[in-house]
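**User:** I keep going back and forth on a fold encoding question. It is easy to fool oneself when nobody else works the same problem. Could you pick a protein and write out its sequence and tokenised fold? Could you put it straight underneath, so I can go through it closely?

**Assistant:**
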Amino acid sequence: MHPQLILASASPRRSELLKQIGIRHSIMAVDIDETPWPGETPAAYVERVAAEKSALCLAATATDLPVLAADTSVICDGRILGKPDDLQHAIEMLSHLSGRSHQVYSAVSLRGEQHWQALSISEVRFRPLSHQEIVAYWQTGEPHDKAGAYAIQGLASVFIESITGSFSGVMGLPLFETAQLLSLAGIDIIQ
């Protein structure tokens, strides 16, 4: 079966989520500078990064397939928490999230004949975490390349008291919004 689109991401989670809804895809990861601009809002940041990823991928490929890209960030107190650099950075992030609510912004960019974008914002509440739990979690390797230093679909699920919004969005690809964009491009999930 031929792919229906190109996923501009090396994220295994995004690929798994597309497979979950039956979307055949090929992968072409792109690398861009993901540094937030001074004064950039979280919504503008994730939308810009997703759009830059899809534009770069589309420019680098010689196909007429649509290109899908996404970007997800954890936001606490208005601050964008990226991926942790090391154990100390993960301790700072997870300690900041401990016992509190935070937001997860996930933007989707789809380029074909047009450019479509969507944004999902979810609210996640962590239970209080001990220093020992955070260190033990880091040692599992799971949080190393995750926004906010956690993976909702993994071991960190035991930290989460509640979620309001999109579980798949917190994972990195909000499927409701993605399906809406795919439909605009003529790719229907359920026929």
The CA atoms of residues 156 and 187 lie 33 Å apart. The mean pLDDT is 96.
